[in-house]
Design a protein that fits this description.
This protein has about 240 residues and is α/β, with parallel strands linked by helices. The protein contains 8 helices and 11 strands. The structure holds NADP nicotinamide-adenine-dinucleotide phosphate.
Length: about 240
Amino acid sequence: MPALRVGVVGASGRMGSETCAAITHDPDLELAVKVTHSDSLDALVEEDAEVAVDFTTPSAVAANVAWCLDRGIHAVVGTTGLSDDDVSELRRKAEASGANAIIAPNFAVGAVLMMRFATEAAPHFDRAEIIERHHENKLDAPSGTAARTAALMSARRPDGWGPTGAEAKSRGEDHRGVRIHSVRVPGSVAHQEVILGARGQTLTIRHDSIDRASFMPGVLLAVKAVAKSPGVTVGLERLLFPGA
Ligand code: NAP
C-alpha cells in the first residue's frame, strides 16, 4: 500500500517540527509538505496531501482546518483554543465535504488516562480544582486539556459541584464548577494535577509530559485513523477506548 501523504501546518514550531520528524520515521507515512507561517495552504493541494496536521496558534487554527475540509483534506488538529462554535462550524464543513477531522487537546496517552481517571472520580468528591503548568510561551490559558478535563468531570455531576469558595484573584477561574489555576514557567512542557476533595480525604491525579515525544504516538494514531473516522471526532479517547 502506498504511504499516506501528510502535510504539517505550523511545521517550524515546537510541535510541528516534532511531528515532521515522527512522520519521516514512520514507514506507513510520507511527509508530503511542510507549511510554515510564510507559506500558502495551497501547498497542501499542490503536494497532494491526504491528511493535514495543524499545530499553529489559537487564532489561525479554525480557518486552517475549515480550508482543509473544504478541499477534501482530512485534518488532525492539535492546536488548542477552538471554541464550541468553531467545532460546530467544522462539523458542518466536514458533513458537506466528506473530509474528516480529529481534534485532540492532548495527544499524550497518559494525559488522556488522567482525564479519564478524573472523570471517574468526579461523582465521589465534593469539590475539584485543577493546576496546569506549561512553558512560558504557551499562548492560551487555561490549557485545552484543563478546560476539557473540567467539562468531562462536570458532565458526570448532573447537579453540579458545591460552592467553589470565596472569589479572590488567586483562586483560579471557575470552569463549570471546577477552578483552574494556570502556571506558565520556563522548564515546563505540559503538566496537570487534578485535586479532588471530600471530608477527610483528597485524591490527586497527576500527569507530566516532560518531552514533546510524548505526544507523537497519539498524533500518528490520529493521522492513520482520520480517513476512517467520519465527521469530527473530539478527544483521543475516542480512538483509544472506542467502546467506552
Ligand atoms: P509554536 O512553537 O509557537 O508553533 C506554532 C507554529 O505555527 C509557529 O511556527 C508559527 O509560526 C506557526 N504558525 C502560526 N500561524 C500559522 C499559520 N496561519 N500557518 C502556518 N503556520 C502558522 O507552538 P507549539 O508549542 O508548537 O504549539 C502549537 C499548538 O499546539 C498550541 O496551540 C499548543 O497549545 C498546542 N499543543 C497541543 C498539544 C496536543 O497534544 N494537542 C501538545 C502541545 C501543544 P510563527 O512563529 O512564524 O508565527
